[in-house]
Specification:
The chain is mostly beta strands. It is 14% helix and 46% strand. The protein has one helix at 2-12; strands at 20-25, 30-39, 44-50, 57-63, 67-72. A hairpin with a 4-residue loop joins strand 1 (20-25) and strand 2.
Length: 78
């Protein structure tokens, strides 16, 4: 199911330059960041996350099988 959610968000963001998303994991952790890429075949989603305290960015590689929810956040990109 999570692969289907990621594919849906990728289809919605096809023509967008910025792709802000919120990804909820089964462990309860939430990632808020910029969707960089998704390799559905290998089960990897890559997002750029920015720390709100230090303003440093880092890349998170997420296992697609552990993703519970994906929400596009186009409204915060404007």
């Amino acid at each position: 199911m999570s692969a289907r959610l990621v594919k849906k968000v990728l289809a919605l963001s096809k023509d967008r330059h910025h792709k802000p998303v919120v990804i909820g994991m089964r462990s309860g952790r939430t990632y808020v960041g910029e969707l960089i890429s998704a390799d559905i075949g290998n089960g990897i989603v890559e997002i750029q996350v920015k720390d709100s305290v230090s303003n440093k960015s880092w890349t998170a590689l997420l296992d697609i099988d552990l993703i519970e929810a994906v929400e596009p956040r186009w409204d915060i990109a404007a």
